[in-house]
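Per your request, structure below.
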């Protein structure tokens, strides 16, 4: 199974994900523009069960942030990089 790794700007948080991404996008919504200070935020989703946060996290490094619309995400306190470890689980298609 494929392993992806990455981390935040300051290096306090690292992550690992096994398997392939469910989706990968460049989000251009206002929330992402405000969070990043740019025109878009690259993002990809993995099932939470395949995603693991590693590094110096110890619970104190990650902070929950909420935007104006009430959406929440995890961010690294020191560098403010957004880490969103859970993609919505797709609902099974209703059978006809």
């Amino acid at each position: 199974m494929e392993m992806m790794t990455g981390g935040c700007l300051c290096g306090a948080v690292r992550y690992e994900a096994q398997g392939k991404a469910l989706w990968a996008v460049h989000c251009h919504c206002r929330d992402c523009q405000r969070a990043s200070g740019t025109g878009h935020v690259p993002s990809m989703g993995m099932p939470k069960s395949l995603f693991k946060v590693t590094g110096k996290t110890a619970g104190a490094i990650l902070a929950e942030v909420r935007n104006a619309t009430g959406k929440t995400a995890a961010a690294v306190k020191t560098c403010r990089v957004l880490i969103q470890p859970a993609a919505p689980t797709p609902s099974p298609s209703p059978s006809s």
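The longest helix spans residues 30-36.

Regards,
D.
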